Amino acid sequence: MRLTFFGIGYVGLVQAAVFAEAGYQVMCVDIDPQKIENLKAGKIPIYEPGLESLVRENVASDNLLFTTDAQEGVRFSPLQFIAVGTPPDEDGSADLRHVLTVARTIARYMEQPKTIVIKSTVPVGTADKVRAAVDEGLKERDRIDLAFDVASNPEFLKEGSAVADCMKPDRIIIGTDNPGTEQQLRELYAPFNRNHEKIIAMDIRSSELTKYAANCMLATKISFMNEMANLADRFGADIERVRVGIGADPRIGYHFIYPGVGYGGSCFPKDVRATIRTAEADGFDPVLLKAVEARNELQKGFLVNKVLSHFGGDVRGRRFALWGLAFKPKTDDMRDAPSRVVMEALWQAGATVQAYDPAAMTECRRIYGDRSDLALCDTKEATLTGADALIVVTEWKQFHAPDFQAIKLALREPVIFDGRNLYDPMIAQRHGLEVRSVGRKRLAPPAPLTQRSAAE
Ligand code: UDX
């Protein structure tokens, strides 16, 4: 079976490579010639565990082809996937420009019937717009005899485990109003639908909404927990105990109820905002989603507020060690990352930052360039030199079990601002460190060493 993918971003590249691995021949079309050249040489533009070797192997076996020639892509196969980006426009709505350009391109070059499958995350009603764009293109060419169909097939992969998520999807949503198209897509996904049924077929609009509903639900869980963490903080309760206590109820469950510095990345912030805008454009006020977004924005400032209050509201001239720049572990993605809000607020307040991240250093350099108030360090230990305090923003494995003794010795003030509740405040306290976390009871600051040894 042959497939064409338009748009070789995160979703397109991972899904195309996984289809190629399953034995299909996949042609990937992108307008960026440099990207295409690199991919042909097996160089991938993103950091994603397992992806580079998958791309290399399938390029070598000729199952994965790359081109900038859209006409070649359209002619290549009856199944045309649209996986181009839908970036937010100024008001946060999903910008469908690229999706509709691909639709028009398919209409311009098609000579055989096509099934057009929308993989990009798009608002409800987009399939109708794609259909209208193709119809129009065919009319212009006087080729309304050419049959085509449009289906929705959203993607649920997570950065950092994208290859595994795609290889073993927990669900495969097929949105179509046409039994023939459903059958075609069922066959395509058969290699990924073994052992137990994962395909959930539904009408197009429900499928389009399922993608947004899934991300909005997860974002809601996080914002809810972050709000509870604020309450715990004020009331002297421990949110980590509360988390375990509520997660035991199977109706709530343990997943996605970790409080922290707010959600970031390429999906949740963008999709929650886009859903809000689509609802508002239709005259509906999505009060809950607006609150989810508002809590997330406030939450990104949570750590900075703690830092500021700890230093009496003035951090001018202070230096902070910062662990974690990516919005989550196992990625170099800093889109909407809480680390950015933290760093920018500290700079604004006159402080400097010494940062380390296992994967996102190049990305950070690309975003911020050279600036005197940011030092990018080669190791997490190097960030501590001369720093007033340590701020932990991303829960990389490398940060889970630090040498508290070394941290205590290096910092000017023995305090860690733990944005992911990684550390047990009691253990840190035994090493003479205070941990300020998200929604956990504040322990008395450690006694000065001399006093402690006298007491012991
Ligand atoms: C998400 C969805 O999980 C995925 O299904 C969808 O296709 C794209 O969006 P991703 O953005 O890669 O994937 O990251 P995810 O692992 O879901 O984390 C999103 C954010 O939520 C991160 O900033 C993470 O730190 C935060 N988070 C997650 C929490 O703050 N608490 C949690 O309990 C879980």
From TrEMBL:
Residues 321-425 form the UDP-glucose/GDP-mannose dehydrogenase C-terminal domain. Belongs to the UDP-glucose/GDP-mannose dehydrogenase family. NCBIfam families: NDP-sugDHase. Pathway: Nucleotide-sugar biosynthesis; UDP-alpha-D-glucuronate biosynthesis; UDP-alpha-D-glucuronate from UDP-alpha-D-glucose: step 1/1. This is UDP-glucose 6-dehydrogenase. Pfam families: UDPG_MGDP_dh, UDPG_MGDP_dh_C, UDPG_MGDP_dh_N. It comes from the Bacteria. The keyword Phosphoprotein does not apply. One of its GO terms (molecular function) is UDP-glucose 6-dehydrogenase activity. Keywords: NAD, Oxidoreductase. Its EC number is 1.1.1.22. It catalyses: UDP-alpha-D-glucose + 2 NAD(+) + H2O = UDP-alpha-D-glucuronate + 2 NADH + 3 H(+). InterPro entries: 6-PGluconate_DH-like_C_sf, NAD(P)-bd_dom_sf, UDP-Glc/GDP-Man, UDP-Glc/GDP-Man_DH_C, UDP-Glc/GDP-Man_DH_C_sf, UDP-Glc/GDP-Man_DH_dimer, UDP-Glc/GDP-Man_DH_N, UDPglc_DH_bac.
